[in-house]
Specification:
The structure is a homotetramer. The first copy, chain A, is built from 3 helices and 6 strands, in the order ααββαββββ. Chain A is α+β, with helices and mostly antiparallel strands. The relative contact order of chain A is 0.20.
């Protein structure tokens, strides 16, 4: 547990419903593996059609997992009706994305009324061995229900 | 033109061949639109299965385009036999990824024997209007042909 | 010119007054070299007491110049009474900070009611030759006059 | 302990000697508070001449602490004779830099022959209360003793 108190007791259902609306998550076969207050995990199996030229999962897909987990870790702490958008992130790709499956684990560092800072790490599982392949630092913005665009 | 002199006169063919090996590029329908010495453009049409919950293209896909263009802008200046890997990047998502098509334009800021710094911007085309939706700053690493892993 | 229309016709005086209140700028001998709508330049001479172990200006000082220029480029487009704070930035250090003087040039990429995205490059001047030593991508936040804290 | 095995048993002395050569560290009153294999802490007292316009320590100084700690965390794992340079970093400024003193704590995430990825957090101490004010993700490069310039 991160020690954060959610503003919306139904945060789990809200995050799950939002995740289900993301077409890209179905396209890449990602699943919501864990949702807690200020924390989220998203997992995905390796698929050849998501790889780059060396046969590893493409950095853009690793980033997609990390970013999506970061967004939902942030959303879990936002009030009812709020929506979340990524404003920016930075990711270091530390090891090749080689493995049978991948999990992004995101954790809120600082929740805020407008901006939430999140750390999100991606792990590869390869024959029972877990390797850290990437680490992200992201800023998420909270949009009230009636705002339709960024900022 | 960026004013850089390529170390490999066949850089265009090398980048094209490498791009063709990236399964993810076919999966998302991306095409190599331009390759020059130190510069690369990659384009993609909007597809609903690449969108997030608000119907915009997912930040992870915008990032995939920007990262891939950045990697090939860097590779165009590397010597024959070299391979390129992303070590890290940061991206600011400035406007919603709304449009009929998207183009990432990458340009090398600083080529180096080991590390190459690249700027990569992503534009949305929407009914003839072009909008800057994201800007990336990336570090690419050059691997000699006989190195199999990052670093 | 960046093509942005300032919301405050007195932006130049406002930026200058704010700069004058920054004790650190005096400490490192930085001067405000240019302020336009959406653009700012800050310069500094080399000083040995600002260097790192190899005799180059420390990356933290290069960053200080880039960040400060970015903040004022953003502030120049904000309404009267607004204050600016850095929420995050990323910088690539591309060449050693060697030279007689250094100039950070910042330009707004995307102004927003809450967040403004700014690019800021740092150049070294060495015997009449100008070298790009660093490039930053930053997010600035606009605080209305009555907000006292970040977010 | 981070679980890393140093390649140089004298890493502590080497880091201390290197730190002592950094003029900027004396200028801002920073001190090396801890050096372990893959970990480093640097502390500094608040000083008015290091502040920005709102009376908080300037983001550039917070960054200087975080970057320097990150560099020495990386250097502690490098072989004898190696030197370290920052290639890039990104920092999120989460809370105002208010307090009597500040400490950056850096920890290596991934050591490498060429590149080392480091996380570095900065804490403010204010009347016995410790607050996380910034988090950095940085890439450090190892230069062998005979290389004089970046890359």
């Amino acid at each position: 547990m991160t020690g954060f108190t959610p503003k919306d007791p139904d945060f789990h259902a809200r995050v799950s419903a939002d995740f289900a609306k993301q077409a890209l998550m179905r396209t890449i076969g990602a699943r919501l593996a864990l949702v807690e207050a200020g924390r989220c995990e998203i997992s995905m199996n390796k698929r050849d059609d998501l790889c780059q030229q060396h046969g590893f999962v493409h950095a853009g897909i690793t980033t997609t997992l990390a970013d999506t987990a970061a967004g939902y870790a942030a959303l879990s702490l936002m009030p009812p009706g709020a929506e979340v958008l990524s404003t920016e992130f930075k990711i270091n790709l530390m090891n090749p994305a080689a493995g049978q499956s991948f999990t992004a684990r995101a954790e809120v560092l600082k929740p805020g009324r407008t901006l939430t800072v999140v750390r999100s790490d991606v792990w590869a599982d390869n024959d029972g061995k877990r390797t850290l392949i990437a680490s992200m630092l992201a800023t998420m913005i909270c949009l009230a229900g009636n705002q339709s665009a960024r900022q």
